[in-house]
Amino acid sequence: MYWSISNIRNNLFHKINHIKFPSLLVSCNRFLSFDKVNESSTDPINDYFGLDKVADNIYKTRRIRTRISANIAYGGQIFTNAISAAEETVSNGMFPHSCHNYFIKMATDLSPIYFHVENIRDGNSFATRFVKAMQNNDIIATTQVSFHKQESTPFTHQEKMPVVTEPEALLSTLDYAESVIAMVESGKKIIESKYINKLLHILVSDRRHIFETRPVDPEQHLCLKKYCPPLKHFIWVKSLFPLGDNPKYHRAMINYISDSSLAPSGYLGHLTEGFIPSMVVSLDHNIYIHHDKFNAEDWMLYETYSTIANNSRVMTHGKFWSRDGVLLASTVQECLVREGIKSKK
What is the pTM (predicted TM-score) of this model? Predict the structure, then answer.
């Protein structure tokens, strides 16, 4: 379900008033005042994934998805749109398999983002494109995309998919957050206010997503229990909207989702130990797409984990699995995580 801003505001404020944390009204007002999702959108997939051609090899966004806490563009959409722009310039039969992105400067939703595609090479089996994402004449991101035509393979292998709880037996992030808040309201559960704040943040953000999430371990996902990375996160994900028969939109959905939970897998556990971040931003984002066609309307398991954190940089990895155990794509990201005010123990 795609909630309007008025739905979110009324539901959220009702819960805050019942929980009796007046100080949260200020932060939630700030979240919602910057929320730029247009209530009149009847086709979010086309709005966020579709591009308008401006000139040869130049495309622009139709609508920009922002973060909740500011009018900052969602990096996953910039990454997705850059790959889509590159796809528009290659011949049929060529599919993106390796995409490497660097985020250079934060973008907003105040003006369109333009994607300038440079043709690096067109070969018989591979093609390469370099994309500059620009806003107000500034380069905000660069993406290099390699395309490969489908060909026979001499052999195949892959690791086995982790065994986890099936999505039908799990609650969505939104539903689980609401159940916890209900327990807090009734006095059955006591949680520090910083965790309530996070729950409300997720409550809002999940209503605005174009995809659904069902964490295998929701208490870990919502920082309701103490743990410290490296520890794997498992989240079932799928599109909330029909994607049609065009494989490009299914690839776009997996590209879009890929940026959503990599960074959190590297720092959320430290929140349970008292860490308070002042900044969390993606420095780069990379995806390897192993299969040309898949169904992003069906449940996919997104496995994410961090291998190292040092010098304020966190390295994270991810894997997308189909329900029947096929490894669809692999992701890698390095994030900048800086510390805020130290919490009192």
Answer: 0.84
